[in-house]
Amino acid sequence: MNYGRTFNFSAGPAMMPEPVLEEIQGEMMNYRGSGMCVMEMSHRSKVFEQIIQDAEADLRKLMNIPDNYKVLFIQGGGTLQFAMVPMNLMKNGKAVYIETGSWSKKAIAEAKKYGEVIIAASSKDKNFSYIPDCSDLDIPEDADYVYICENETINGTTYFELPNTKGHVLVSDQSSMFLSRPCDVSKYGLIWAGVQKNVGPAGLAVVIIREDLIRDDLPAYVPTYLNYKTHADAASLYNTPNCWAIYCCGKVFKYLQNTIGGLEAMNRLNEEKAAVLYDFLDSSKLFKGAVVKKDRSLMNVPFVTPSKEMDADVVAASVAAGFSNLKGHKSVGGLRASIYNAMPKEGVEALVAFLKDYEAKH
Amino acid sequence: MNYGRTFNFSAGPAMMPEPVLEEIQGEMMNYRGSGMCVMEMSHRSKVFEQIIQDAEADLRKLMNIPDNYKVLFIQGGGTLQFAMVPMNLMKNGKAVYIETGSWSKKAIAEAKKYGEVIIAASSKDKNFSYIPDCSDLDIPEDADYVYICENETINGTTYFELPNTKGHVLVSDQSSMFLSRPCDVSKYGLIWAGVQKNVGPAGLAVVIIREDLIRDDLPAYVPTYLNYKTHADAASLYNTPNCWAIYCCGKVFKYLQNTIGGLEAMNRLNEEKAAVLYDFLDSSKLFKGAVVKKDRSLMNVPFVTPSKEMDADVVAASVAAGFSNLKGHKSVGGLRASIYNAMPKEGVEALVAFLKDYEAKH
Known about the structure:
Two copies of one chain form a homodimer. Chain A is built from nine helices and 14 strands.
């Protein structure tokens, strides 16, 4: 059906699969004979328990999450995870962070409240346009973990190889590439992701944590809600969770498995989509990608024209042509196309056709 | 239209107005020509900014909130507010709490992490079946605030008169009576409410805070997300908020104003509905209300039969008769009917007819 939907290149919240939205719409007034909408359900009811248990089981299957990892559904987004990670994992009060852009910088600033932060590698020297070499980092023996932002949403970089943590726990913010490609969970101590970029509606972070990292000896000032153990012990139902987001994400997990065919298939589609845009940028005389080739994100593609004025002109023309949210983040300027899982290849092709046309005229 | 919806007496998440759900359903695939669902919108887009600004403006109108109060939309629910209130307001490290049941007890336990808690009045002696006299409390001069849970969801009590705080700041958890009746905001320093009981979907707390209580000298360990100033300075858009819940709640605010006619009208309807159930309980020989008359909540009505076995039998029979969620909270047992704003009078009448029928047969 034609709903008049636009190609939405927002960095998040962002597009969701249309068949998932149709299903949600169909269940709005009465979810599967329960007599109510999911928004109206007690989180302690059997019908909602089934929804949250299915969501967890489907995510475990999709990512092949080992049994010794807990899956938690927590409110508060990345901002809260920036605090929860050091509060919960800084046992020795010391952690290593890799500085690759806006979101790792935010994580670093918050972690400094709770202990010593060692920046073992940075790409600040070249405006965060690449991922630094992390094959031989200087990591103190007593560092509690090594933290990365695996895909920098604003800067458009991604890790194709994980850091050599030399036996230390790896913590990753996967928000803007969560479920975009296969992931060997066993290589991580903790993965967290705000779901509003590549999965569902804002207001939910998924945390995947190795059980032995969950502690019961946190400092007294840690609020009950900010202790991973609170959520782990109660299967994410210590208090009322964001039931609606869990329901919607559960549907996306099923969609990725059953319709897309799993994360290998999703990755192939994402590679194809990104190639359409990167091939154009590499051949263009007017538009230029902002990131070195080897570290380019398949999800967030920042690019520029020769001037700020022309950047703004392209954005204005793109809106007139029916595209949404192509303006670069205010902190870096330029343009950015976020092409998450739910962006169809046709959307990227239409964008490239528009950019080619613009280039021909200028 | 008949959707086959049940009368849902859940204590929260709970019923929402059917016309609001229909509107949301209608806007699912393409919100008002934006080309996308609200779940897919950038929180920095003009279209979402309008949604959040309208929600705040409509709430301000509905509650007549004075200009020197901020309205904040925060994730994390009551559990996070239990920590945020003392973290932000305990300047002298001392606060007075009134102990009236399960939710004030949770607030007290969390506040003890951050300072001295003085329980100035309690109804623990009679199983929290009443609201203690708060007309002449013993409040230390340097107490930072006096905290109440204005409606105890589990115990079924409510304050019809606010405590005499003797000039101290009043903080109120209004979660289970938010927008059920008029409220003179100027009497409070801070009001907070998890919206999932009487307004919209879970995952959002509304905080109404007097501006002079917002501080910038909090202890270093307070996470950025847990500082009210973070949210106040950014008009609740410091990070990605629960956009969907804000959108849904905004619709309920409009519905209360335009369809119901405001909070005076809502209160009259709630009084009528509650009277149907309380009048029956007062006349019944089998069922008995659990709360003293003068302090009975209009929202949550706990009641019992002569035995636990019969309680369970009534619950089972109610499910068979098409009612949902009448089982009392696991901590107190018995039965409980939550009859929030969105429960129609017909729902309460149907429940009473069912209970009368049950009584006639036993």
